[in-house]
């Protein structure tokens, strides 16, 4: 069974931004799917088990954006 | 002596976009300096001799944006 966590992300303006977020978040252990949308400002992560929010927020920060858990 | 050519570029929204344009345009033979600005929508190229506009427009297109010579 997989779980999905969603976040609001500010600052993404284009496909390059989405890719930067996807790349960083995909590195988190256990993450199976990452969907980042600049147009809606959302990030959805699917994983086999819940992922630590702090790790997600840190990964988004590393990519250069700000996230908050929905 | 160097010459500078400027272009109007539409579609760049962030630093990633600027980097994508810079990367493609920098590959053109003779180009010495490239400045791309998303905020002003401008591209400036400095080279030792005039660079073919078609090559510049093609490079910007390759990066995913549209340019027009100023």
Automatic annotation (TrEMBL), chains A, B:
InterPro entries attached to this UniProt entry: HMA_dom, HMA_dom_sf
GO molecular function, one term: metal ion binding
Domain of life: Bacteria
Domain spans labelled HMA: 3-68
UniProt cross-references to Pfam families, sorted A to Z: HMA (PF00403)
CDD domains named in the record: HMA (cd00371)
The protein, known as: Heavy-metal-associated domain-containing protein
Organism: Ornithinimicrobium ciconiae
